[in-house]
Specification:
By secondary structure, this protein is of the alpha/beta class. About 45% of the residues lie in helices and about 15% in strands. Strands 3-2-1-4-5-7-6 form a seven-stranded mixed β-sheet, sandwiched between helices. A hairpin with a 4-residue loop joins strand 6 and strand 7. Helix 2 packs antiparallel against helix 5 and helix 3 packs across helix 9. About 45% of the residues are buried.
């Protein structure tokens, strides 16, 4: 029903699936390039549950095949009178615009200057970048920046590399081969040096994690960011999820194994960021369904 509804609204599900199948051999070849055998031998139990109707969650080619269309259709209900490709651009654009404005205010002589001068020394990390849609947004909005894409699904990661680097893809980027690196890793244990990154973004991950792991992700983001670096999170607004009509909330509950904890008092993203050490933390609605949280690792003079 989800795909059928999307097709009626103008989401190019058929086109995205056809492109995936046509270029499947490339995605398969990428698997060996990006996967981490050590992780594959023993995934943590919170990740091996049923997600989004897939029995093996994100650990399958089937989930990877459907993911681009599903991602593009996320905003169907945000502004229902508008076309899905437009609304997808709007809510992603709201996030990057807020991130840029935050950097202007809190890092005017460092990160903001790198953004304005389109410096290749701007180092960003897209945590849980999935099949590359959020990574493509960062490539477009932060010209010349280097972007690391971290995801725990080698199927998604392989697909992201294929979609970003293959001509004709809906998210193809000619610069991706030089600007994007791919890491198969846990968000709470990332293969990056301490104090090495300017910006870390986390999109639509934390509602899929138990609260203790969310805290670990915040602490890991703090570790890898340079002093003065910025963490920006985009995800479901818990209070909005709780106020959904019964049927829509039920659909969340049956497809998201950790959503009860996310919408309970056990999870307070804003407070978790503060506890991890971030300052100047903000919480705002990004669109009718999602919120954004932004915070800064204290500069050396403030630490």
């Amino acid at each position: 029903w989800f795909i059928e509804r999307g097709n009626k609204k103008g989401v190019p599900f058929g086109e995205t699936i056809d492109f995936f199948r046509t270029n499947f051999e490339t995605a398969q070849a990428n698997y060996d390039l990006v996967s981490n055998p050590t992780i594959e031998d023993d995934y943590k139990s919170y990740y091996t549950q049923t997600f989004h109707g897939y029995e093996t969650g994100n650990l399958s080619w089937e989930a990877a095949e459907d993911c681009l269309g599903a991602t593009l259709s996320m905003s169907l209900s945000y502004w229902p009178k508008n076309r899905p490709m437009e609304t997808a651009s709007w809510f992603r654009g709201n996030f990057t615009q807020a991130l840029t404005q935050y950097c202007d205010e809190h890092s005017p002589h460092d990160i903001s200057q790198k953004i304005k001068t389109k410096s290749s020394s701007l180092n960003m990390l897209d945590v849980a970048g999935s099949i590359g849609v959020s990574t493509k947004v960062l490539l477009d909005e932060f010209e010349n920046a280097k972007v690391g894409l971290v995801d725990l699904s080698p199927y998604f990661l392989s697909t992201a590399k294929m979609l970003l680097e293959t001509k004709g893809s809906p998210i193809y980027d000619a610069s991706a081969t030089q600007r994007v690196s791919y890491q198969h890793a846990y968000a709470e244990d990332m293969p990056y040096a301490s104090n090495s990154l300017d910006i870390v973004t986390v999109s639509f991950l934390i509602h899929e994690l138990p609260p203790p792991v969310i805290r670990q992700v915040m602490e890991e983001a703090y570790r890898v960011l340079k002093p003065g670096g910025v963490l920006a999170i985009l995800d479901l607004d818990a209070s909005t999820v709780k106020s959904l009509p019964p049927l829509r909330r039920f659909l969340f509950e049956v497809s998201e194994p950790h959503i009860h904890q996310y919408t309970s008092a056990k999870t307070n993203v804003h407070e978790f960021m503060k506890d991890a050490g971030f300052q100047h933390t903000t919480y705002e609605m990004n669109d009718p369904m999602n919120a954004r949280w932004i915070g800064q690792k204290p500069p050396k003079s403030d630490a």
